[in-house]
Automatic annotation (TrEMBL):
Family of this protein: Belongs to the EMP24/GP25L family.
Domain GOLD: 2-173
Cellular component terms (Gene Ontology): COPII-coated ER to Golgi transport vesicle; endoplasmic reticulum; endoplasmic reticulum-Golgi intermediate compartment; Golgi apparatus; membrane
Record membrane topology: Single-pass type I membrane protein
Protein name, UniProt field: GOLD domain-containing protein
Length: 177
């Protein structure tokens, strides 16, 4: 993905890997490259991440989000879903010399600031929602595994106890005859 960004215009974003059909955790690498080719930000092997950067050059920034096979638990390719979110700060475009517009320019500046903060809040809320959902699915999956393991273990213990009782009965019944 490429986005055209202006110098000193902050941008922020996040990604969250949603669990697949089997609740496996996919881990991703995110590399953000500037127009000159230098790496501005790098995240390696994470299922979720947030970033906030201020570009120091104008141009097309490249965002590369790829599946990290080494850190992902599954060797097989399954359909994966990633929630991607990116917001770019607003530049102040009100530069007319009209007196009436000059009076409202500071008001528009505050409106843009509130709008940017609201967008950031929404993005953070969405990020936290999907992160909590992914964590909840992991906990439920772990609880299910623990329950199955405990039932199997208790079943094996009951079976072994019954076999011991039968073995001891058989041993005593043959010994006295």
């Amino acid at each position: 993905m490429q986005y055209d960004l202006n110098m000193y215009e902050p941008f922020y974003g996040s990604f969250v890997a949603l669990p697949d059909l089997y609740s496996l955790q996919a881990k991703y690498d995110l590399i953000i490259t500037s127009p000159s080719g230098t790496r501005v930000h790098e995240t390696v092997g994470e299922p979720e991440a947030k970033f906030h950067l201020v570009p120091y050059e104008t141009g097309k920034y490249r965002f590369c989000l790829r599946l990290n096979q080494d850190k992902t638990g599954s060797r097989y390719v399954l359909s994966r879903e990633v929630l991607w979110d990116l917001h770019v700060g607003h530049a102040d475009t009100h530069s007319n010399t009209n007196l009436k517009e000059h009076d409202t320019q500071s008001l528009w500046h505050y409106v843009h600031q509130v709008d940017a903060q609201l967008q950031q809040l929404r993005a953070t809320q969405q990020y936290l929602y999907w992160r909590e959902r992914r964590h909840r699915m992991t906990v439920e999956s772990t609880n299910r595994r623990v329950l199955v393991y405990a039932l199997v273990r208790n079943g094996v213990l009951v079976l072994v106890s019954m076999m011991q009782v039968l073995f001891i009965r058989r041993m005593f019944s043959k010994q006295f005859r």
